[in-house]
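Hi all, posting the design record for the shared folder.

TITLE: backbone redesign
STEP: 1 of 1
STRUCTURE INPUT:
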């Protein structure tokens, strides 16, 4: 399978997962409206509320992510090595140069944020700059720029909207179960049972779909980075160093964990199982298959 095949396959799988997500939201909303005879009011309120919250996050999320991570913007004069490497990669693919930030942290990690290429930022830890060779750091930067180029922030924002809708719908159903008994439709016992099952399982299902989409985007960014640099081994070696180091960030945050190239938390079995990132070993294997002669 070529790098282009990997990119196409990952895009297709991500879209399929989003369709499943939409179907889950519509199913839950329909069941609640059928049970209470809301005429679409419940799902409408939930959708509006979640969309407004997501839009606020969409337009301000990049600044929040950078602030939470302790990132500081640098210029070419302050760090010519890093800024020029980013600029050269952007020139090679016709991408606007993002703002470059540095995180004072000995761990090897990096992330990109921004709603589109014109409003993008990339942040790299001091550990990555010091510990990675030129080709390795270039692979990491290419991975993050691929997230910008592939509009992954928009995809994940859509997922956040859907997760929010499911959460709000579940909360509304829970409240109506106690305070809206008079408005229930007769013969709604079966719907009530189904609704109660979904209210318990939906948040878990939503989170699992969110994790799956995030992991697919990581594989897509790896494939795009390999295509950008024409050297998959560079990123593979960088991921190897990250795996061997196993050092968490000094200021990890669950809210920004999905943005980083690697899980910023301490590596534990349960944390890895629920991580927004696929296993590093699997990513390394996939990259080296891309670079292997056919």
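Okay, here is what came back for every position:
SEQUENCE:
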């Amino acid at each position: 399978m070529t790098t282009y095949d990997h990119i196409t396959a990952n895009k297709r799988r991500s879209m399929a997962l989003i369709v499943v997500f939409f179907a889950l939201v519509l199913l839950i909303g329909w069941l609640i409206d059928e049970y209470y005879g809301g005429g679409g009011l419940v799902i409408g309120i939930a959708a509006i509320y979640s969309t407004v919250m997501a839009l606020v996050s969409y337009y301000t999320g990049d600044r929040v992510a950078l602030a939470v991570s302790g990132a500081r913007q640098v210029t070419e004069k302050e760090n010519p090595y890093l800024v020029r490497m980013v600029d050269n990669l952007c020139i090679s693919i016709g991408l606007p140069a993002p703002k470059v930030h540095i995180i004072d942290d000995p761990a090897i990690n990096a992330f990109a944020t921004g709603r589109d290429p014109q409003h993008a930022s990339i942040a790299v830890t001091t550990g990555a700059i010091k510990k990675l060779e030129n080709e390795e750091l270039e692979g990491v930067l290419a991975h993050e720029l691929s997230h910008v180029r592939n509009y992954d922030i928009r995809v994940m924002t859509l997922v956040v909207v859907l997760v929010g809708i499911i959460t709000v719908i579940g909360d509304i159903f829970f409240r109506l179960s106690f305070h809206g008994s008079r408005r229930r439709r007769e013969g709604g016992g079966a719907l009530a049972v189904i609704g109660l099952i979904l209210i318990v399982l939906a948040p878990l299902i939503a989170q699992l779909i969110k994790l799956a989409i995030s992991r697919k985007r990581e594989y897509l960014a790896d494939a795009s980075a390999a295509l950008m640099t024409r050297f998959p081994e560079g990123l593979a070696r960088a991921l190897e160093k990250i795996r061997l180091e196993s050092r968490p960030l000094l200021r990890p945050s669950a809210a920004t964990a999905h943005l980083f190239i690697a899980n910023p938390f301490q590596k534990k079995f349960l944390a890895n199982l629920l991580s927004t990132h696929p296993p590093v070993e699997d990513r390394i294997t996939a990259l080296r298959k891309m670079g292997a002669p056919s």
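COMMENT: Residues 1 and 290 are 7 Å apart (CA to CA).
Let me know if anyone wants the other runs.
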